[in-house]
Design brief:
Order of helices and strands: HH
Number of helices: 2
Oligomer: single chain
Helix content: 25-40%
Strand content: under 5%
Radius of gyration: 25 Å
Largest sheet: none
Structural class: mainly alpha
Length: 54
């Protein structure tokens, strides 16, 4: 009977570990999106400005 109580307590405590956040998992994954750069740990440089010669 003691094992039953321990098992039930484990199940109940695990239920509290689930997140109730309304954020979507896809939104959370975009926080960790990395861009491959040329050997450095910085963000890639911006694109060059457009030509003014029309």
């Amino acid at each position: 009977m003691k094992r039953v109580y321990i098992a039930l307590m484990g199940i109940i405590l695990n239920m509290f570990m689930f997140s109730c956040a309304k954020e979507d998992i896809a939104d959370t994954e975009t926080l960790y999106h990395t861009v491959a750069t040329e050997g450095d740990d910085e963000n890639p440089s911006p694109p060059p400005p457009p030509d003014g010669d029309n």
